Amino acid sequence: MSINEYAPIIGKGPVEELKILAEKLSGKIIKIINSTQMGGGVAEILNRMVPLLNELGVLTKWEVISGNADFFVITKKIHNALHGTPVTITDDEIDLFLQNNKINAETMDLSGDIVFIHDPQPLALVEKKKEIGNKWTWRCHIDTHAPDWKLWGFLRKYVEMYDAAVFSSPSFAQTLSINKFLITPSIDPLSLKNQELSKKTIDSVLKKFDIKKNKPIITQISRFDRLKDPIGVIEAYNLVKHSVDCQLILAGGTAIDDPESIEVLSEVRERVVGDPDIHVLELETPADIEVNALQRASTIILQKSIREGFGLTVSEAMWKGKPVIASAVGGITLQITHDYNGLLTRTVEGTAYAIKELLCNKGYAKRLGKNAKEFAKQNLLITRHIRDYLLLFLSLYHPEEIVHL
Ligand code: UDP
Hints:
Elements: H1 7-10, H2 12-24, E1 29-34, H3 40-55, E2 59-64, H4 69-83, H5 91-107, E3 114-118, H6 129-132, E4 135-139, H7 149-159, E5 164-167, E6 179-182, H8 199-208, E7 217-221, H9 230-241, E8 247-252, H10 259-271, E9 278-282, H11 288-297, E10 300-303, H12 312-319, E11 324-327, H13 332-335, E12 343-345, H14 348-360, H15 362-379, H16 382-397
Parallel strand pairs: 1-2, 1-3, 3-4, 4-5, 5-6, 7-8, 7-10, 8-9, 10-11, 11-12
Helix pairs in contact: 2-16, 4-5, 8-11, 9-14, 12-15, 14-15
Uridine-5'-diphosphate binds next to α12.
């Protein structure tokens, strides 16, 4: 993978622009720190982005903080509390969180010009800032619009020690005394999950799952999680099926560390008994080619979430030129403009109505998909994400100035 390989997708100009921006940062060292090298959207993006930044000449090093199981239990609680889920975090747990950050601060190499911390786990490393004095930025991937206020009050003291904070959406952010940047996540068009696939590969995946192409395919790909509302998807499909023949794919993974997913999957299986046109697929991790092929084989992609962070499945489907019907929640509303590049819905009935509308009006579905692809190209690709980060890094050296290219 090389940065020049993106030129046929986004054009030579935007790739050249990345090179110009990168040159302005030459000599600067970026130190990225998060809590995991693999698993989850953050690690997925960093694994693709760090080599590209280095290729562009921005020396970028990526390190992961260490911690024992107790530490990660606490950080998971912090994550949930920032999302607004009620949890109890004791003073001892807060002490352990800070203690772990202190140990990491002593043992990790925090040198570099810009220290770029992702998410709350390594947040308190910033205490080291006054000693080493480089620029510090906190990247928050969580929707913190309605956090546990006591916890936020505590974390906020650390957040405000940074030079800047980055959120995915204006609605995810809190009021802060430091500069805030709004940068949405991205997908990589050259990854296995998003690259072009041959008809042969798509057909072989359909064959593997015993899916025929004789009826339109409606698909939702998501972890089996109640917040993704798989039962609502089945109910919407059932309403459609009375009048328009189609088939439904519900595909997703379960995880041993998520007992709820196993429960949800078995509920889903119970609900679909007797309908051979509903395919419930338990995917392995990773299943990038399978996800890619199922998205590409679909007539319509659904994302009927009750709550959503950003909704990368929506980005992936839009990039593939698919008409997407998704709930008007979280980051989905940043991606879909209703009736222009997809359809936003709020209920089972509304979703069923939208499915029927698209199945019966192919030209309309095609137009939404076309606009979706163009939107994804302009806004949702990793190259735009890199550009935003480069501008963010530059702005740290030019506060209150316009950066000229
Ligand atoms: N995904 C996957 N396998 C699955 C379910 C989901 O690879 O069984 C991928 C999906 O393609 C997307 C990501 O996991 O890239 C899910 O991100 P999203 O933001 O949609 O939801 P989250 O799971 O983070 O709530």
